[in-house]
User: Fold this.
Amino acid sequence: MILDDFKLEGKVAIVTGASTGLGQAMAVGLAEAGADVAITGNSHALDETVAAIEAVGRRSLALKVDLTNQSSAVRIINQTVDHFGRLDILVNNAGSIRRTPAIDFTEQDWDDILNLNAKTVFFLSQAAARQMLRQGEGGKIINTASLLSFQGGILVPSYAASKGAVASLTKALANEWAPLGINVNAIAPGYFVTNVTEGIRVDEKRNKSILERIPAGRWGDPKDLKGAVVFLASKASNYMHGSILLVDGGWMGR
Assistant:
């Protein structure tokens, strides 16, 4: 039956940046579909996400790491496998943003965002893929892209560059790893209610202009990503490779 293809019982996932917001919702969604989930975070406590995962009867592992240190990639994979015995799904969600006019943008602002949003995605994907190949059963890698994988945005040059890189990296890795049974795809969220977007949402003029362009007429709720991440993590998406799945309330079609 088709609904069985969406079930994730017996699977183990890692979700980075899962303290709050989009990462938390995706981690809980995977748990609701049956997966055990390791989560990473840095600046926020992970207890709330752990509690939500365990509330649906799944096991969780909280890893507080600095993802900008590339040596953490192998450690995250090893700790997850040591705890759960395997790895089937990686969700590269952790990211950051700096808003500054391009004329004033510093080298540090550029490097900080590119290191986390793009470099970390590659090396964590590489470490996960190596583990998946050792297991010999394939796996699923899901990256968090953005509307700015397609658009340039305003005042966020390094973020736009990093999310463009995520989209291209998703396709590049899919080209190499599809024959090995590893699906690499991405989700591109639109405007969602998160801590990151609070400043825009309280700006009456900016908020109005955004809502006027979204055909759905509302900001996304992080829970709106659960279906997309479960789909890309499950057997139901086995023939999808290198896709960027928009979850944007219709923004890009406007």
